[in-house]
Design a protein that fits this description.
Blueprint: E1 2-10, E2 16-25, E3 30-34, H1 41-48, E4 56-61, E5 64-65, H2 74-78, E6 81-85, H3 96-105, H4 111-124, H5 140-152, E7 158-162, H6 170-185, E8 189-193, H7 197-203, E9 206-211, E10 214-219
């Protein structure tokens, strides 16, 4: 599904975020990206939803080059990729329902379908009874559930998450991971950058370790592999 071939990312100041990375991620996989802060994990995540482009190399998704996609085609491409952030990034002046529905409205989905799909997404994340709440009325875990619902409301083939449990207490973090696990079981590919050692060790999924912009380790049923 996802193929990175000899990918490097060098910023204008000379910083080398990624160095000659080659990876293949298959449909339906659950992949953890681990490694020290500043290793290049977030840069790799941003390449997957075309927030950034590589300096060298090729990124393809389902055989389609992410580099050759025209700017006007990017919104269409992003419909197949859901994104979850550490800091939730909810619109403070919109309700739970409106935050999720907005992801559909901006791509022109009809009103009836917006309502149906938004309600289904909120039911899936356990927030059907919170649809009229504003972000400030929700706990951190509930806000992250809203961001998960927003990310999956388009039924994307790929879900990328950048430290989605980083601002949550351990119990709430596990609730989010159980949610992501169930979404993955429904067939969605998940790539998640994280520092959560206990989560990575217990879930025993594929682990790709990034160090100094390079792939240092790629293990099936891997462990976090770093100290606290």
């Amino acid at each position: 599904m996802i193929q990175l071939t000899n990918v490097s990312k060098i910023y204008p100041n000379g910083s080398r975020a990624l160095v000659d990375i080659s990876l293949k991620i298959d449909n339906g996989e659950f992949v953890f990206l681990v490694g020290p802060s500043g290793a290049g994990k977030s840069t790799l995540i941003r390449l997957l939803y075309r927030e950034e482009l590589p300096t060298r190399g090729q990124v393809t998704m389902n055989g389609r080059s992410m580099i050759r996609v025209r700017e006007r085609e990017v919104p269409q491409l992003r419909r197949n990729v859901g994104v979850i952030f550490q800091d939730f990034r909810l619109l403070p002046n919109k309700t739970t329902f409106e935050n999720v529905a907005f992801a559909l409205e901006v791509i022109g989905v009809g009103r009836r379908e917006v309502r149906s799909r938004t309600k289904k997404a909120l039911e899936l994340v356990g927030l059907a009874n919170k649809e009229n709440c504003f972000p400030h009325q929700l706990s951190g875990g509930e806000q992250q559930r809203v961001s998960v619902a927003r990310a999956i409301v388009n039924n994307p083939a790929l879900l990328v998450a950048d430290e989605p449990t980083g601002n949550l207490d351990p119990e709430t973090a596990w609730e989010i991971m159980e949610l992501l696990y169930n979404i993955n079981r429904r067939g969605t590919t998940i790539v998640m950058a994280t520092h959560a050692r206990e989560i990575v060790d217990q879930m025993q999924k594929r682990v790709i370790a990034i160090e100094d912009g390079k792939v240092a380790r790629d293990q099936r049923q891997g462990a976090y592999g770093y100290g606290t």
